[in-house]
Amino acid sequence: MLASMSGIVKAIVVGAVTITAACDRDCLSPAGVVQNETVVSAEPAFNPAAGDTMIFQDSMDQYTNAHDMDRPRGCALRPFYPDQNPANYAVISPGHGGAGKALRLVYLRGGGERPIWKTDPEDKRWYAPANAAFVIQYWFRISKNGGPGGSPGYGNTAVGMKWIELWRPKMSDRTQFGVTAGDPATGPLWHVNPASKGPIGYQPVGPYWNQVNDNQWHRATYLYQPASWTGAPDGVARMWIDGKKIVDVSATAADVLPPGGTKPWSTKDEVQQLDTYQTGTINLGEYMNGALGDRVTDLPMTLDFDDFKWWRLPARIR
User: Fold this and answer.
1) Is 228 left (phi over 0), alpha (psi -120 to 50) or beta?
2) N or C: which end of the chain has fewer CB within 10 A?
3) What percent of the chain has pLDDT over 90?
């Protein structure tokens, strides 16, 4: 291995390399990355021995209420205007696994309602290089009054919700994974929405929304890699629930029909629509576009989050 003064690490021979880092509620100082390309097909798991580097992680166990989190010390997940919207936020106990704490969002009315937990500070360059592939993973639970969870709408793209958003630095635009369309059997479908370009890569296989709105904890994992330039075919956006891949917008998945799928994962044109920018802020939750009274949105609905991890991969992927 050769390392520059800026921390960029280049492989000069084939072999294994270990880059180790650990953190809890702390920020990664931008550091080096092995400049190779790897293939990632299965759900990623954090593996420092393979070169993965933790950017930020949070167990949520140290918080007492949403107001405390609006004034974080160092890096944290914080709520969006909790004092103005106290009914939309809570720190709950127990969290995932029956221990510790978790964060809660409550959607009451929809129609543009906007409760969010977001990474802070917003102006930090969290990792380097800017085009690195990274993984986000956390546990979530959907519920309605302690029972199976409500639906954020289905049937068209005008209703639904923005589930997780990846904002570029300075918050000028974002890529999001959201849920819209679908039908009464599946509920809304997950998909990718690159900045200002419309939804692409609609979910072709389960588990669908109506299978995970069961008031039980489920694991969500996302792998994201910005495109090298506008229209480049090397961007990647994937999502797993409980280890099952449900969204894949990438060159390797374009025009590929998954077993039991209702459509191909994505198209080559969709892959070329993926964005090019670095991620500076991650939002959990966001707009609830569906609303009470639209006959397809079931509210109030509660989303709980726990054990958040955000790590960088050692190389770009395909």
Assistant:
1) alpha
2) N
3) 71
Beta bridge partners of residue 57, listed in sequence order: 309
Please count the other Cβ atoms lying within 10 Å of the Cβ belonging to residue 311: 23
pLDDT in tens, 205-243: 999 999 999 999 999 999 999 999 999 999 999 999 999
Residue 12 pLDDT > 80? no
Chain-wide mean pLDDT for the chain? 87
What per-residue confidence (pLDDT) applies to 263? 97
Pairwise CA distance, residues 135 & 238, whole Å:
9
Global pTM value: 0.88
Q: Bridge partners of 312?
A: 53, 134
Which are the contacts of 71, defined by CB distance < 8 A and separation ≥ 6? none
Query: Domains in the chain and their CATH numbers?
Result: 49-317 (2.60.120.200)
